[in-house]
Amino acid sequence: MKYKNKRLTFLILAVLLLSISPLQAFSTSSEWIRPNSVPVPYDNRPTPQRIELGKLLYFDKRLSISEEISCATCHNPELGWSDGEPKAIGHEGKVGPRNSPTIINTAYQTHQFWDGRVETLEEQALGPIEADVEMNMPLDILIPKLRKIKGYVKLFEEAYPGLGITKDTLAKAIASFERTILSTEAPFDRYIKGDKRAISKEAKDGFELFKEKGRCTDCHNGFNFSDGSFHNLGLKDGDKGRIEVRKGVKKATGAFKTPTLRDITNTGPYFHDGSVKTIHEAAAICGNGGRFSDVNGLSFFMIDRDLNIDDIEKLVTFMRTLEGKPMNIKIPTRFPK
Asked: What value, to the nearest 5°, has the Cα angle with vertex 304 and ends 300 and 308?
């Protein structure tokens, strides 16, 4: 009798599972809920002193060789922590090879830069400072320069007692501030937590399209709407991408990191090459098989889903619900002397 009951229970469960899609069977609302904290390295725990120091350094143009560029030049809070340009513009007006990605929620990413060439924010922080097409400031010039600024000497001692101003503490301070740049609560967050009136019917339809017909969740999943992985979208722009980091890995050819969709409507133009101006066009490219289907290394997720204009509009309406209010951050106007 017990055997028959177990068999009956199994059959009921099987019928229930078959009646819904695989995505529905393994997807719960909790995966979309934003966590209450961010991961931090054991050797750079955040403190108010470290965060404040990092903020000053982030906005201080003296960290560039020309003293005209700061980290915020390419990652501006008023432009969705990006710069609104197709490709980054740096030292002496030089145009960089790629679009400036938003730094929103980079604290949750396991790889930094479009090609993922480093893993931590500490490793990432110094790259733009030294890059000749960005801030063009050699660290062997910058570190002595900062050591001559009494205000910074005091602040570094408060943030990292006994360690002084070094490449390591400079990177740690900037990374500490960057970990505070997080998406704020958006209408979607209220919706997923139970407020069914937080978003419109069209947005709800867009969310279903996002999960089902569009299969956008293949790459944009979880609360940060990114799988943290790398994909070739068939843009055919000539940039080799991830394969420059993962030598010999064919699927890395032309592949770039999946960006977060949080505040996506504020961070255009889109993709690593900044070639797409509107979120509508970006959604159409991703949802309908990429710009070109004959690209070597094209991601196997890039399949034509036959999304029509109405589908695209609903998807965009949904993505707009991922936009929260701007962070309440006081941008420094005075810097240490």
From this structure: 150
